[in-house]
Design a protein that fits this description.
Elements lengths: L1 H24 L11 H45 L2 E2 L2 E2 L9 E2 L2 E2 L7 H5 L3 H29 L6 H8 L2 H31 L5 H31 L4 H30 L16 H9 L17 H26 L13 H38 L16 H7 L2 H19 L2 H24 L5 H16 L5 H32 L6 H6 L6 H11 L1
Antiparallel strand pairs: 1-2, 3-4
Length: 542
């Protein structure tokens, strides 16, 4: 850059000296002042000014190009060096998920929001959002206290929603102990399979018998906790918590068996190098059962130490989110439907309630995402020193629902892709059918949790997942980026508003409206749609 400045300066000085030589010793040497002298000097000055402007612009462009080149080189070297902190790469969330041979590769990286919160502007948005929630909370408390002399801050909803903590812990421990039997069954099958002669009838019988035991175990694992949840009459929040843990353990055990069966089948006793990878030790199974991933590996990238401040902050965020969710439910979602049944709502009121529920519903959706996929997952990852913390990507920037479903819950998406989509696609060779089956399995799990937790079958979420969401995946392919992102957020806002209207309506209709005469119909048909008719029929009989 200095060389360029010197060259420009030398060119400028040479030009001036030549011009002086031209004036003093050249043809203009004998020039005498006359009437045209002033005009000629003005022309020379104007010419010099134009030359200076050109040189100045050239100099500025030179400096700008040199600075841009230097900055680009610095950025490239920083990206290549990518220094590590606490065992994982700083800024590693910008890396794309790598797959080798179609398999997920675990690499050390932060969660997206963890890196974004290091930017002051993004952290300020977080602070503004927290301040707005605090103001909303204080406004509600002051208003309720002045108007009624009491306050409703969500504590009643938390106490009612979770019920007996001891019963929840008891069922959870039963489920954990049951998953340990999976490892015992698997190890017994693997050792016996290795002892039996290849291609023998006894080995085939042993394999099919072990498969039958595994399927029976998984079936009982679904039925027993579900029955206990129903028999103990868990409130909705407690039921959702127990059933989510049940589904999580089902996915974990399926992933463990599905990943390790091919290893056992491919094992050759005469191969000395294969003995070490015959089947995993119990310590690896135990780590996987609590690791924040649904894809089994013998080893995962680990951090150097546990940052207890990070764990404590994540736990504090979880508690605050539970409190605020209960507060929003108690303040905005529950009140319109508490008296559904004795008071019959017209369709106009339901439509208005859907629109009024959209804003608190999308806030609840964002709370759920942040609590489960950021705070909970990062707390568990920190405790286990699990280094790959890409539990989600920047789904808020997505322009299509296909991208949204791939990025907003990566652990579940990885499991569905690895153990549902790929297996179905290999068997049927149809990509569309494999996608449809993947959506159906995901929707079935969601509906199973909600149906047992609330005590009724109301497939609003199932229809939205397996129906409208699958349709939007194909319809939104041709939209521009801006239009696609707007439509995605619009669908999320409207969809959550409908969900948070219809489910509370049916929940309180089940408490206040007369049941169907047929028990089976009463279990699968919504009471809220015909509560007015049932009430009229009952009053006419009386």
């Amino acid at each position: 850059m200095n060389g360029n400045v010197v060259s420009v300066r030398s060119r400028h000085e040479n030009g001036d000296s030549s011009r002086l030589h031209e004036v003093n010793g050249g043809p203009l040497h004998a020039f005498q002042p006359s009437e045209g002298t002033v005009s000629l000097d003005q022309m020379n000055i104007k010419h010099l000014e134009n030359r200076m402007q050109v040189l100045r612009q050239s100099l500025v462009d030179d400096i700008d190009a040199q600075l841009n080149s230097m900055m680009s080189e610095v950025i490239e070297r920083l990206q290549e060096s990518n220094p590590k902190q606490n065992g994982y790469h700083k800024g590693a969330s910008d890396h794309k998920q790598e797959r080798k041979g179609g398999e997920k590769q675990f690499i050390p990286r932060n969660s997206y929001l963890t890196d974004l919160f290091k930017v002051n502007h993004i952290r300020t948005i977080y602070n503004i959002f927290a301040a707005m929630l605090l103001v909303l909370f204080l406004n509600t408390v002051v208003h309720d206290y002045i108007q009624t002399g009491t306050t409703h801050v969500g504590l009643r909803t938390i106490k009612t929603g979770f019920g007996s903590v001891y019963d929840i812990v008891e069922i959870w421990m039963i489920m954990v102990a049951s998953t340990f039997f999976i490892y015992l069954e698997f190890s017994l099958w693997a050792n016996k399979h290795n002892e039996l002669a290849p291609k023998s009838i006894s080995r085939k019988i042993w394999d099919y018998a072990s498969l039958f035991v595994f399927i029976t175990h998984q079936t009982l694992f679904i039925m027993v906790p579900a029955k206990l949840t129903i028999d103990k009459h868990f409130p909705a929040a407690a039921g959702i918590l127990v059933l989510m843990e049940q589904v999580r353990m089902l996915m974990k055990t399926h992933a463990f068996v599905r990943s390790n069966v091919p290893r056992v089948l491919a094992y050759k006793p005469k191969d000395e190098n294969s003995e070490a990878s015959f089947y995993p030790q119990f310590s690896k199974f135990l780590y996987f059962m609590f690791a924040p991933t649904f894809i089994y590996r013998d080893e995962y990238p680990r951090t150097k130490s546990i940052r207890w401040k990070v764990v404590m902050w994540n736990v504090a965020e979880i508690l605050m989110i539970v409190f605020y969710v209960a507060f929003i439910l108690e303040r905005f979602i529950i009140p319109p439907f508490e008296k559904y049944g004795p008071r019959i709502f017209e369709i106009q009121f339901v439509v208005l309630t859907v629109f009024s529920s959209m804003l608190p519903a999308i806030v609840m959706f964002l709370f759920g995402f942040y609590c489960i996929l950021h705070a909970c997952q990062n707390a568990m990852a920190e405790l286990l020193r699990f280094a790959d913390r890409q539990f989600y990507k920047d789904w808020w920037n997505c322009t299509s629902f296909s991208a949204f479903y791939r990025t907003w819950n990566i652990p579940v998406h990885d499991w569905l892709h690895e153990y549902i989509y790929k297996d179905v696609h290999v068997k049927c060779h149809s990509k569309v059918f494999a996608i449809a089956m993947t959506f159906a399995v995901s929707a079935l799990f969601h509906e199973y949790i909600l149906a047992l937790a609330f005590g009724f079958f109301y497939p609003v979420l199932f229809i939205s997942f397996a129906g409208f969401s699958l349709l939007l995946v194909f319809l939104m392919k041709n939209y521009s980026k801006m239009d696609g992102n707007i439509y995605m957020w619009l669908a999320l806002i409207v969809g959550n508003g409908i969900v948070y209207t219809l489910y509370p309506m049916e929940f309180y209709a089940r408490s206040n409206c007369p049941p169907y005469s047929d028990h089976l119909l009463d279990s699968i048909l919504p009471r809220s749609w015909i509560c007015h008719k049932i009430s009229n029929d009952t009053s006419s009989v009386n």
